[in-house]
Amino acid sequence: MLNRLIFNAFIFTAISCSFLKGYAVENKDADIFYKVTIDNPKEGRINVIATFNKLPDSNLIISEQNFSEYLNLGGLKAKDEQGKILAIAITKGNATGPDRLYEQKVYKISSKGAKTVIVEYSVKPGTIGKHGHRGYLDEYFGLVPGSGVFLFPLDDTDINRIAVEFKLPEGWKVVCPWKSDKNIFVLEHSSYQYNLNMADVLCEAIIGFGNFEMRSREINGFNIQIYAFSEWSDEHIHAICEQAFRLMEYQLELFGINQKWDYAVIFVPNAADKDRVFGGSWSLGQGFEMETPSLRSWELLSHRFHHVFNYYYPLGMYMIKKSSGWFLEATASYYEIKALASIGYYKLENRISQLKDSYDSLKEKCDAPLSTDYKQRFQTLEYLHYKKAPLVAYLMDEKIKKGTNGEKDLDKFLKYIYSEHGMKRSAVNLKEELEQFTGIDFNEFFKKYVDGIEPIELAK
Ligand SMILES: [Zn+2]
């Protein structure tokens, strides 16, 4: 079914300038109030004043939500409501959250007796990661993951209401997945579906700064908003938004995903050094460079979108065994290709044979059983996720078609397990459910391609 393209006037949330004195008191109904200021974007620094109104009986402990090197944290200090400086002890610990499993710095603030704790710091996004700049800010635009901006309490059980105010350079606006018709974003636990926790709503959001045009479309309940850098030509904006909608629509239709859900995509230019810019990806949205889109840009858009319903909280699923985790990457990497083939970008078989070539050329150096992917790192992990796993998904698809005389395929199996296990977050017993659904014995297949490193051969 075709959906009507809606051009919504987006009520932007540029913020009036002065930081009202006593604001924290006025906002004491917010458990945490963040004031985010960009004074001079050329410097690339974002200043944050976080007011914690709900404090634990013991000391307040806050944590980084991203790698320390991505944050480039500076100027950290804390005071109470009287302006008394509070001591901060730095330790290492684990932040909570789906992708925040690494060691982050933890700040223990001597806040006993305080009614309110005000923490000031700055971050400087832009460090290079595997997708180019991990977060970015210059005089033209900014793109950051929430985890690159916000320090957050380690224990968030009592955090139900967060307010975020942005103070940006003149003419700049902020775009993100949160909704607001005022100058302040108020994130309330009760207004998010599926009991999404506040740490995730805040820290997994992708946030864009600058000027953007917005296109929105509702597809099977998904309310998708795309923000495209407004200095691009109308033709470019139209072309990239239309293509992105088509790729996302393909997957929503194919898997019969029908869920009321808000999803925000932010397309930004390349960095000044011409490198790519990545603001993150999660169930609320994704953001990256789309100035001169390559084949890979579109595949990554589709890959990340697939994770919204196969993996990311709260619409995704769990696998019963860690050793089945590879399947989540296999399907994301296979359906990124199928999505592009569906719009005639290339022929599925051609892209699969290209993948097979790079699989072959790196096999000796990088190969490992797919079932061990959760233990792998760096080159081997990349090889398994982006080269081998999609090939194995393709073989699986072919095997299902052959074994059921074309009655079933991987599309149908995924549609089935997403409806069974997605949203509800029940766990998938991969091999058992695959065999049950298809009526095909997958013993040999798993032995060779999942638990072993048997060379993959494609039918001529
Ligand atoms: Zn992935």
Structure description:
- Among the domains are: 23-210, Immunoglobulin-like (Sandwich), CATH 2.60.40; 318-450, Orthogonal Bundle (Neutral Protease, domain 2).
- Helix 4 (234-254) runs parallel beside helix 5 (295-310), helix 4 (234-254) crosses helix 6 and helix 6 (326-342) crosses helix 8.
- A hairpin with a 2-residue loop joins strand 18 (212-219) and strand 19 (222-229).
- The strands form 5 sheets. Strands 5-4-8-2-1-14-16 form a 7-stranded mixed beta sheet. Strands 9-10-21-22-20-19-18 form a 7-stranded mixed beta sheet, covered by helices on one side. Strands 6-7-3-13 form a 4-stranded antiparallel beta sheet, with no helix packed on it.
- It has helices at residues 23-26, 68-71, 198-203, 234-254, 295-310, 326-342, 348-366, 378-403, 410-421, 430-438, 443-450; strands spanning 32-37, 46-52, 60-63, 74-80, 85-86, 88-94, 103-109, 117-123, 128-129, 132-134, 136-137, 142-145, 152-153, 161-167, 173-175, 184-188, 206-210, 212-219, 222-229, 261-268, 277-282, 285-289, 318-319, 427-428.
- The protein is 31% helix and 26% strand.
- It contains 11 helices and 24 strands.
- 45% of the residues are buried.
- The protein is globular, with a radius of gyration of 23 Å.
- With 460 residues, it is of the alpha+beta class.
- Bound molecules: zinc ion.
Write the layout of secondary structure elements.
Layout: H1 23-26, E1 32-37, E2 46-52, E3 60-63, H2 68-71, E4 74-80, E5 85-86, E6 88-94, E7 103-109, E8 117-123, E9 128-129, E10 132-134, E11 136-137, E12 142-145, E13 152-153, E14 161-167, E15 173-175, E16 184-188, H3 198-203, E17 206-210, E18 212-219, E19 222-229, H4 234-254, E20 261-268, E21 277-282, E22 285-289, H5 295-310, E23 318-319, H6 326-342, H7 348-366, H8 378-403, H9 410-421, E24 427-428, H10 430-438, H11 443-450
Parallel strand pairs: 1-14, 10-21, 19-20, 20-22, 23-24
Antiparallel strand pairs: 1-2, 2-8, 3-7, 3-13, 4-5, 4-8, 6-7, 9-10, 11-12, 12-17, 14-16, 15-17, 18-19, 21-22
